[in-house]
Amino acid sequence: MVNLFRMTVRDRYLGSSLGSFWAITNPLFMLALFTYVFGFVFKVRLPGSETTLAYVIWLISGYGPWIAMTEAITGATNSVIGASGLVKNMAFKTELLPIAGTLVGLINLAVSLVFLFVLLIWSGSTISWHVLLLPVVVILQFAFAAALGMWLSAIAVFIRDVVQILPTLLTALMFMTPIFYPFESMPAIIQKVSVANPFYQIAEGYRATLLENRVPDVLGLGYVTLLSAVIFHFGLRAFRRAKGAFDAAM
User: Fold this and answer.
1) pLDDT, tens digit (0-9, with 9 covering 90-100), for 181-213
2) Domains held by the chain: number
């Protein structure tokens, strides 16, 4: 698994001058850009907040995990296609490819969390013991991404349009999820639907542990756990049925 992860990261930035260093600079640039735009240009403030920094921290606490999720799902989707040489010429458990592709998102998440902790320390915010629960949220996030990736990686081998449309779908999902705006600002009927959005539950898990100094919603994370298990179970079965035809499709 470790070797597959290293191979995935290396192949992702193959041919570039900075190589894997882009895995750090890309999310760092986006986080800095959003901090500048919302903190210094639009000067957005949360209700009841006296500074724009509070909104920036709140935004990054949701947007940082989101770009990690996007990277994880994209990496998993491209994992089998990107390793076509291995799939055709070597006998190994190809089911590990989407999982290794998912783990690429950990780099983005690490960069985002370091950036966020710097902002929290700068703002003088208190970081409580609840941050120790953060690994639970991280594990659930990547378990859900791996579950989706198991399906998408197999489908992408036969329908390459999935790779092209995925960034558009993820962007649409980002704006449908309360990441840039508070949950309370949504219409009541949309709020009820959003509770079933696993991306919202994951984002709230980060905000609960890092900003609100409380235990995340147990029911919400339990829902994500159950959903991930179901999707992964059936996705793995479908992947194993389809992998026999990978050679012919690639």
Assistant:
1) 999 989 999 899 999 999 999 999 999 999 999
2) 1
Query: What pLDDT digit, counting tens, does each position of 142-151 carry?
Result: 999 999 999 9
Distance from C-alpha of 195 to C-alpha of 97, rounded to nearest angstrom: 31
Q: Give the span between the Cα atoms of 136 and 206, in whole angstroms.
A: 10
Helices (H), ranges, 45-187: 53-82, 84-89, 96-103, 105-123, 134-158, 161-176
Number of residues that this document lists for the chain: 250
Q: Are 243 and 94 contacting, i.e. CB atoms less than 8 angstroms apart? A: yes
Q: What does the alpha-carbon distance between residue 45 and residue 199 come to, in Å, rounded to a whole number?
A: 23
Distance CA 239, CA 192 (A): 33
Residue 62, amino acid? G
**Cα 107 from chain centroid (whole Å):** 11
Question: For residue 140, what are its two tokens?
Answer: 């659930």
Q: Whole domain around residue 37: which residue ranges?
A: 2-249
CB 199 within 8 A of CB 66: yes
Nearest to 202 by CA among 124, 118, 140: 140
Q: What is the pTM of this model?
A: 0.93
- Can you read off the two tokens belonging to residue 78? 């491209």
Q: How many CB atoms lie within 10 A of CB 247?
A: 12
* CB contact at 8 A, 149 and 28: no
